[in-house]
């Protein structure tokens, strides 16, 4: 039941009317959904309430009672690997999916549809049913054009096209697209709300993270800029994600000096769904290695793993399970160190973007020194204001009972006596909630370029490696960067001996990921595809590398 719910629980994303999606055709005349989106790597969901929709896709009810195509976190965080041709499903694993191609193909399909009246007529018949009048068809076309205007803007400006730094399977620039979505499509003047100058190429792709320890690591996002570790900070993490996948966000001035901006006007955020999904993520366990493990060799590998990094290990300060920063509702986080290990710098460089703050100008940035947003401000501040403002107004818009699970979870984790509970509840929905979200995004506090080092349970199932997915296996990661493979295919076929992607793949038309290795210069390699850095363990003797790999299989 938990798996079924995770695959199709609504979180509030609203991509397009579902009737449009069902009616959409590809260039060859076949239905866009005919293969269940398997051509992009999405996985079949036999329990989907809507037959044919893959894992992580659903038809959610919108504010008018219609059905809207929605994406939930399972779409990008469910993995299926193949071992000698046999499939193995890994819930919470990084998806081997090609979201960039899906977005580009949707953009192209709608562009072709709107340019061809002969193609639009059967589309209208499918959407409207029966024999629609010319007026009805004209009205529908106007609605499609209005929807397509911002969609095309973000796809044209944001999603790279070959031969640029494309995402490819198993990667995307999530942070870049969230910046584009919130600052480029949502905070401009009505009616279309678009600020084209805030759109930029989302060309710093990273691999999808795994979820089975996501709820308790004390920092999150690959550059480690977001506080994490309990349901409050987790809600901040997930609201930003929903906005990135086209949740409705229409911040609107109210004229009220006390509450000058309505962050949740027409909002599609599904707070109960987000809280439930976080609960399901907590229930995930790291997958067990599906092959034999030499326990004696793994024990030797553990000794190597526990060595200091300068001796070739993964020791203190990197990937061990160490108590992290306590949070308001969780005193037991795992430390997630954020360090510069000379890996690809591109994502960090992109964090410095600034833009027009639109209707958010003058709102208080919810982190010290609590300045007002200026007319031009950092994307980090824009996103922080959007996310924290939305959550802070949530109890007012949706009623405090919608947030009861969040409070109950906090009470379970904090030893509070009965007389204090009522006061705690009041504070939680007011200043404490907002206070707990302060400084969620703290880009400036870490020496850059730097990325998080996560606890490595289940690491065997999460290839390719490094934050940008530039190394296909753990065996390759233990080689010096210059000796790591320069290119490799991406797909579900797995190599248990080398712990990672198999050399030969048949999915994605045998897509090849080309990497770079301009290592050791004055400036770090920032191609987006660099295999440089993380030199730990690369000088170990072969027999010690073998032992370390055996231990990593066992985590």
Could you characterize what this model shows?
This is Cytochrome c domain-containing protein. Residues 60-148 form the Cytochrome c domain. GO terms for molecular function: cytochrome-c peroxidase activity; electron transfer activity; heme binding; metal ion binding. It holds the Pfam family RoxA-like_Cyt-c. Keywords: Heme, Iron, Metal-binding. This protein has 15 helices and 19 strands. With 555 residues, the protein is α+β, with helices and mostly antiparallel strands. The chain has a domain at 295-325 and 449-554. The chain has a three-stranded antiparallel beta sheet with strand order 1-3-2. The chain starts with a helix and ends with a helix.
Roughly what is the average pLDDT, rounded to an integer? 90
Distance between the termini: 26 Å
Shape: globular
In percent, how much strand structure appears in the residues? Answer: 5-15%
Main features:
heme binding, globular, two-stranded antiparallel ribbon, alpha+beta, 555 residues, single chain, 15 helices, cytochrome-c peroxidase activity, CytoC_perox, iron, 19 strands
Give the secondary structure arrangement, pairings included.
Layout: H1 2-8, E1 16-17, H2 18-23, E2 57-61, E3 67-71, E4 78-83, E5 86-91, H3 99-115, H4 117-128, H5 134-158, E6 171-172, H6 174-185, E7 206-207, E8 219-220, E9 226-227, H7 231-244, E10 252-253, E11 261-262, H8 271-282, H9 295-305, E12 338-339, H10 346-350, E13 354-356, E14 376-378, H11 379-398, H12 404-413, H13 418-437, E15 451-452, H14 474-477, E16 487-489, E17 494-495, E18 500-501, E19 512-514, H15 542-554
Antiparallel strand pairs: 1-3, 2-3, 4-5, 6-7, 8-9, 10-11, 12-15, 13-14, 16-19, 17-18
Helix pairs in contact: 3-4, 3-5, 4-5, 5-6, 6-7, 6-11, 7-8, 7-11, 9-15, 11-13
């Amino acid at each position: 039941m938990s798996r079924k719910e995770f695959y199709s629980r609504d979180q509030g994303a609203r991509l397009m009317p579902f009737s449009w999606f069902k009616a959409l055709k590809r260039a060859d005349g076949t239905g866009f959904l005919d293969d269940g989106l398997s051509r992009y790597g999405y996985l079949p969901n036999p329990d989907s309430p809507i037959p044919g929709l893959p894992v992580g896709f659903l038809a959610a009810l919108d504010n008018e009672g219609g059905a809207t195509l929605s994406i939930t976190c399972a779409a990008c965080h469910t993995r299926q690997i193949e071992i000698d041709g046999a499939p193995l499903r890994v819930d919470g694993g990084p998806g081997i999916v090609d979201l960039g191609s899906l977005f580009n193909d949707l953009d192209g399909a709608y562009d072709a549809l709107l340019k061809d009246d002969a193609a639009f007529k059967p589309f209208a018949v499918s959407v409207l049913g029966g024999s629609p009048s010319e007026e009805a068809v004209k009205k529908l076309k106007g609605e499609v054009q209005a929807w397509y205007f911002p969609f095309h803007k973000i796809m044209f400006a944001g999603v790279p096209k070959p031969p640029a730094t494309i995402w490819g399977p198993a990667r995307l620039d999530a942070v870049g697209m969230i910046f584009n979505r919130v600052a480029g499509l949502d905070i401009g003047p009505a009616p279309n709300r678009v600020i084209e100058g805030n759109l930029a190429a989302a060309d710093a792709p990273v691999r999808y993270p795994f979820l089975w320890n996501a709820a308790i690591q004390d920092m999150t996002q690959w550059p480690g800029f977001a506080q994490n570790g309990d349901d409050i900070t987790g809600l901040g993490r997930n609201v930003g994600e929903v906005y990135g996948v086209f949740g409705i966000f229409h911040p609107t001035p109210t004229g009220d000096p006390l509450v000058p901006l309505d962050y949740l006007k027409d909002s599609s955020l599904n707070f109960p769904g987000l809280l439930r999904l976080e609960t399901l993520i907590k229930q995930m366990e790291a997958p067990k290695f599906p092959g034999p493990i030499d326990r004696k060799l793994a024990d030797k590998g553990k000794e190597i793993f526990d060595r200091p990094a300068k001796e070739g290990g993964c020791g203190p300060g990197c990937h061990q399970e160490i108590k992290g920063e306590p949070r308001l509702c969780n005193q037991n986080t795992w430390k997630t160190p954020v360090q510069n290990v000379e890996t690809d710098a591109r994502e960090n460089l992109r964090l410095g973007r600034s833009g027009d703050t639109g209707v958010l100008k003058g709102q208080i940035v919810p982190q010290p020194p609590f300045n007002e947003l200026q007319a031009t401000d950092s994307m980090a501040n824009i996103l922080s204001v959007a996310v924290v403002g939305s959550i802070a107004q949530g109890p007012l818009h949706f009623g405090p009972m919608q947030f009861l699970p969040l409070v109950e979870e906090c009470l379970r984790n904090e030893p509070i006596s009965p007389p204090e509970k009522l006061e705690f509840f009041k504070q939680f929905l007011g200043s404490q909630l907002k206070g707990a979200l302060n400084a969620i995004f703290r880009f400036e506090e870490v020496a850059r370029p730097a990325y998080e080092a996560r606890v490595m349970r289940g690491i065997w199932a999460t290839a390719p490696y490094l934050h940008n997915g530039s190394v296909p296996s753990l065996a390759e990661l233990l080689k010096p960067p210059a000796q790591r493979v320069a290119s490799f295919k991406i797909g579900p076929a797995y190599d248990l001996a080398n712990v990672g992607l198999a050399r030969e793949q048949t999915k994605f038309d045998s897509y090849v990921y080309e990497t770079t290795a301009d290592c050791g210069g004055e400036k770090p390699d920032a191609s987006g595809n660099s295999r440089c850095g993380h030199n730990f363990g690369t000088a170990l003797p072969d027999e010690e590398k073998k032992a370390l790999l055996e231990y990593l299989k066992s985590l």
